[in-house]
Amino acid sequence: MRRRLAVFLSLATLVSSASACGHDSTIAKAFRNRSVKGRYVYAGSGRTVTIPWRFNAALALDGRGKYALDVDVAVRGEGDRNTSYGTYAVDNDRLRLSSDRGGETHELVIRGDSLVAETDVGGSVILRLVGVPKPVFVRER
Predict the structure, then answer these.
(1) The pLDDT of residue 4 is above 50
(2) How far is CA 125 from CA 14, 43, 110, 122, in A?
(3) Alpha-carbon distance 33 to 44, whole Å?
(4) Which of 16, 32, 126, 140 is packed most tightly, with the most Cβ within 10 A?
(5) Per the confidence metrics, is the pTM higher than 0.85?
(6) pLDDT tens digits for 30-88?
(7) What are the E-state strand segments in 92-140?
(8) Domains of the chain, with CATH numbers?
């Protein structure tokens, strides 16, 4: 049960935008902008019903179109940590992440020094129901 909730929270915060994005096999070819290079962090915590949770993520963009995403989730004090890798591309105000595992693609909106996860209506409802704030990654200085 705890593992399922951890996976659910992880998916709800970072992956809810995937349904609108789909798979893009040409994402590495679309890479054109190095101004997003850096490390971005997100931290959230709260209580869903009576279950305490914590979610931390760090997204490192290398300036050459490669990323690493570290995710640390804890539910009722029991944690799970995962690192994923892939490529990214910038298209105007959008940052597209394409995982090296299975072609999963996610999209974030670039707003100054922040990356905001876009969610469809269903994803927004799920986030609100479980008490997760809108995922916003902020660039570390």
Answers:
(1) no
(2) 14, 20, 22, 5
(3) 29
(4) 16
(5) no
(6) 444 448 999 999 998 888 878 888 889 999 999 899 999 999 999 888 889 999 999 99
(7) 94-99, 105-111, 114-117, 136-139
(8) 2-139 (2.40.128.50)
